[in-house]
Amino acid sequence: MANNFARILSGKRNVGIMSLVGAGSLTAAFLLNREHVTAGAQVRRVYPASADYPDLRKHNNCMASHLTPAIYAKLVDKATPNGYTLDQAIQTGVDNPGHPFIKTVGMVAGDEESYEVFADLLDPVIKERHNGYDPQTMTHPTDLDSNKLKSGKFDERYVLSSRVRTGRSIRGLSLPPACTRAERREVEKVVVDALAGLKGDLAGTYYSLTHMTDQEQQQLIDDHFLFDKPVSPLLTCSGMARDWPDARGIWHNNTKTFLIWINEEDHTRVISMEKGGNMKRVFDRFCTGLKEVERLIQEKGWEFMWNERLGYILTCPSNLGTGLRAGVHVNLPKLSKDPRFTKILDNLRLQKRGTGGVDTAAVGSTFDISNLDRLGQSEVQLVQTVVDGVNYLIECEKKLEKGQDIKIPPPVRK
Amino acid sequence: MPFGNTHNVLKLKYASSEEYPDLSQHNNHMAKILTPAIYERLRSKQTPSGFTLDDVIQTGIDNPGHPFIMTVGCVAGDEETYEVFKELLDPIIEDRHGGYKPTDKHKTDLNPDNLKGGDDLDPNYVISSRVRTGRSIRGFCLPPHCSRGERRGVEKMSVEALDSLSGDLKGKYYALKNMTDAEQQQLIDDHFLFDKPVSPLLLASGMARDWPDGRGIWHNDTKTFLVWVNEEDHLRVISMQKGGNMKEVFNRFCTGLTKIETLFKDKGTSFMWNEHLGYVLTCPSNLGTGLRAGVHVKIPNMSKHAKFEEVLKRLRLQKRGTGGVDTAAVGGTFDISNADRLGFSEVELVQMVVDGVKLLVEMEKKLEKGQSIDDLMPAQK
């Protein structure tokens, strides 16, 4: 069986993708442009799109809901300038049909350009996942001015801990599902170099997963900081766990209130946390830290992936926009047993998780409560939503303690 | 990624040393053989279907291995992998297959008449007999690399061929994705059903993509001849039955395989085979015959004997638990099979199993009577 490939060279930058598919032939050639790549890469296409279209009849994820044979046929011959393809982007959704009750996203981005090249699929997926946000017509507000946050100090008889996390990607380097080992190591180097420039209460140390001593490992486990190789097939099927633990690591400041994961599900995950209910201070540190890290990488000529259509670009479409999850561990023994609990959370635009994080169950009556939304609202707006919402939940709990009745609040947004 | 060459051009802008994997904690054949120099020479290459060096070795990078078990640590994505990356694969093959050289020729012998004896293994000890191998269909990429269309093509072609088998080989195909609950339960009860691989050794190579699309099980009506489609290889072919009549098992094995091969030839294709590597399969450990002939045998006394391992080594046999590879033996019943795959013909390997198991049973009987087995110790084969 002969496969013929044509290599086409071009001098233009970011022209886009041209695909030549000879009718009835087994040939596909691509024009791919990028500053550093001088030869066109090829995608091997032996079968017509209809023969390769995945069987999604038993699937329940956002990708499966929107990948029609027509969209598949349109996109399957395309590749990003880095060479990332549609089949790679959707593999996790093909391999993980999903839950009947939980709708997963079912696809990932391999690089920043994935969101452009595969927009015909990603835009409807984003719209479904982010409550109607239309990337073609809307813009996303970014606001990391924590001074705007009102109140934000919770009653510590109920709130045990406060945390804000997000992710950041380094522009110019492929994302975890697609990155090469050299790219991943470059992400590590760029970020660790920048973090070494943090001072004051942000000064800290980096612990590479490869070089960690047993003692360091135990300390990180005790601090609940250590992340391990992903076991969830949702993650492993996308290829993000390749070469583990090469170029993965954890950085945290000396006071253990600002923590960065490197090369786990995203280039970086940035976490500000502390015991107790001072969400204001957590958010202050979060914004200061993020801006400082951004300044430090810019000094070296790097920047974060961001655009006004999608906000901060991350691996999973569910984390676009702010990529922000602000949450508390809060004790709500009476409210959590009230049949109106779920509706109250829905209207407040909050979600509950167990205290082990996503896909875990609550222990006792302590819940992880955080914002549902990521895209379409700014960081300040989302954290305010959590502050206002958690305060409301605590008021409900107090009322129930006194035998008073509670009210389901009106929805905070559509 | 384990499919498509689309990333290889990007990688080349980085120096080889920047891309070279960290194998300092690793103990597998790939990690033993791969050097920065080999990596540099091979990393810009690809097979005609676009399989690259990183595709070959990804499973070995992701699975550092056991201190005691040497895994292979690499896979092939197509037939040409063994040519294009021979600089890496030849030494791995030599290491894994007892010194088999790049210039050696492999003998194929599927004539069951050449097997001496094998119809008289004592059924009081030998509970079941089984021969398995794999086959790849020339012209299609292998499980780590194939597209969904290709995998379905393999399934279609295989089912067409199997559906035309007749006589005691006549049977039925059960696609994994269309199976009814009743069919599934029956296949489990028959110990025929294979499930999605869970071993990270397999998952990291990409062979479980799109599960269960294009996968299925075919077996004959008498449940003695079974074919797995699109699991770790295009086809795994199994002949098995209760008791110790290995000769009958091997007869059926050879007859069935030869018939299937003829059917494929009628369709204008064939199995991947060459005179150096024999039958070409996904894992380099299964090259040559791809054959594992084995029995489940009750040897509680023998298995506790100090010389058990030595005897197995000399007979060129290996032990496994009755759940297959990486399982433990239950109650003194072991799975005993040939250790070799390449460099010996099918007849030679089955002969080793037949002769070797006969001897093990003799030794077991002696130990039962409290006698010594010293005078029965075999020479190194």
From TrEMBL, chain A:
The keyword RNA-binding does not apply. It comes from the Eukaryota. GO terms for cellular component: mitochondrial inner membrane. Residues 158-400 form the Phosphagen kinase C-terminal domain. Its main location: mitochondrion. Residues 44-131 form the Phosphagen kinase N-terminal domain. GO terms for molecular function: ATP binding; creatine kinase activity. It is found in: Mitochondrion inner membrane. Keywords: ATP-binding, Kinase, Membrane, Mitochondrion, Mitochondrion inner membrane, Nucleotide-binding, Transferase, Transit peptide. One of its GO terms (biological process) is phosphocreatine biosynthetic process. Its EC number is 2.7.3.2. ATP binds at residues 161-165, 224, 269, 325-329, 353-358. It is an enzyme of class 2 (transferase). Reversibly catalyzes the transfer of phosphate between ATP and various phosphogens (e.g. creatine phosphate). Creatine kinase isoenzymes play a central role in energy transduction in tissues with large, fluctuating energy demands, such as skeletal muscle, heart, brain and spermatozoa. Belongs to the ATP:guanido phosphotransferase family. Exists as an octamer composed of four MTCK homodimers. This is Creatine kinase U-type, mitochondrial. The lineage of its organism: Eukaryota, Metazoa, Chordata, Craniata, Vertebrata. The gene is LOC120051711.
From TrEMBL, chain B:
GO terms for molecular function: ATP binding; creatine kinase activity. It comes from Oncorhynchus mykiss (Rainbow trout). It catalyses: creatine + ATP = N-phosphocreatine + ADP + H(+). Residues 96-110 have a biased composition (Basic and acidic residues). ATP binds at residues 128-132, 191, 236, 292-296, 320-325. GO terms for cellular component: extracellular space. Its EC number is 2.7.3.2. This is creatine kinase. Keywords: ATP-binding, Kinase, Nucleotide-binding, Transferase. The lineage of its organism: Eukaryota, Metazoa, Chordata, Craniata, Vertebrata. The keyword Repeat does not apply. Residues 11-98 form the Phosphagen kinase N-terminal domain. Residues 125-367 form the Phosphagen kinase C-terminal domain. Belongs to the ATP:guanido phosphotransferase family. PROSITE patterns: PHOSPHAGEN_KINASE (PS00112), PHOSPHAGEN_KINASE_C (PS51510), PHOSPHAGEN_KINASE_N (PS51509). Gene3D superfamilies: ATP:guanido phosphotransferase, N-terminal domain, Glutamine synthetase/guanido kinase, catalytic domain. One of its GO terms (biological process) is phosphocreatine biosynthetic process. It is an enzyme of class 2 (transferase).
